[in-house]
Amino acid sequence: MLSRIAESLFWIGRYVERADGTARILDVNLERLNQLPAPEQRLVSRQLLGIMGVRPDAGKLEDLGLSYLLDKLAYDRTGPTSIAGALGAARENARRARETVSSALWECLNTTWYGLNQHRKDVVGTYRFCHWVLERTAMAKGLSDTTMSHDEGWQFMILGRSLERADMTARMLQTPEMLSSGLSWVNMLRCAGAYESFLRTRRAAFGDEHAAEFLLLDRLFPRSIVYALSDAEQALERLDPSYERVGFINDARRIVGQARTFLEFHQTTDLMAELPEHMDRVQKACARASDAITRKYFAQTVDLSWVGEVS
Fold first, then answer.
1. What span, in angstroms and rounded, lies between the C-alpha atoms of 92 and 193?
2. Do residues 128 and 11 make contact, with C-beta atoms less than 8 angstroms apart?
3. Four-residue CA torsion sign, 121, 136, 27, 62
4. pTM: predicted TM-score of the whole model, two decimal places
5. Given its phi and psi angles, is residue 51 left (phi above 0), alpha (psi -120 to 50 degrees) or beta?
6. Which residues have CB under 8 Å from 220's CB, separation 6+?
7. Which of 10, 28, 140, 230 is most buried when burial is the number of CB atoms within 10 A of its CB?
8. Angle between helices 3-34 and 38-51 (to 10 degrees)
9. Range of 78-87, 129-138, 195-204, 234-243 with top mean pLDDT
10. Tell me, what's the pLDDT at 244?
């Protein structure tokens, strides 16, 4: 497979998952943000922007209200951290790999791109926009799974999706300020679409620590960090099924495997106190794995940051 095609498929997986994760985070925070007074809105908006890796424009610190947050995380087509920017980048990468992606997936991403302008940009409109994005990204992921051969190209797409999913869950959980500013464990689970699965699994074991543990360590829930890292590790193994008697030549597989095993085998009596450290470690591992994948498969000399491969 050509490296440029593999790279485009990898970033389709990442960008679609990024749009999905950002929509989930916005969805559960919109109602709470809309009810806060302006000073608290600016504070929470700054926290959310920081979690998503968005640096406010120079001279805009006083304007970090709800409208600025919605623009930067939902509608800004020039920024790959926003929903619209990520979906636009996914479409562009699908256009580059048009001979490899299925017609159904291309049509889904193309239609989604042209549907971005059909939404109001106020709070109510953004709430509906987020639900529309969740439906469109679910359709894109379903079409990629059911209309593409599960060959090397599909493995690159799954690899990108899994790394981005682990990173997005880590960003959601990374700071205790999110909990102290009013994001309860219920909303934390809703961010990841995990509320019902958590209730069925844990039954009466409620609380922030149980919810964080579920999103970090559950081996059966697809959006947990351990599950996502395991998916990424399996995709890397299928892409390079070499067996060495000592260690791993594949740097990305070693990085992802170390991050997963540390979470699975680390024992702690106070998970919430260690949560920021764990989430920082996961984000760094995802970034390092992405760089290692780029060096090995895509033959580029420019390092890619979390915001991704820019068009």
1. 28
2. no
3. negative
4. 0.90
5. alpha
6. 201, 227
7. 10
8. 160
9. 129-138
10. 63
Give me the residue spans of the domains in the chain.
1-148, 151-300
pLDDT range class, residue 108, cuts 50, 70, 90: very high
Q: What confidence tens digit (pLDDT) does each residue in 267-302 have? A: 888 888 888 889 999 999 999 999 999 999 996 544
Q: At 167, which amino acid appears?
A: D
CB 85 within 8 A of CB 91: no
Instruction: Using the predicted structure, report yes or no on whether residue 253 has a pLDDT greater than 60.
Output: yes
Residue 239: CB atoms within 10 A of its CB come to 20
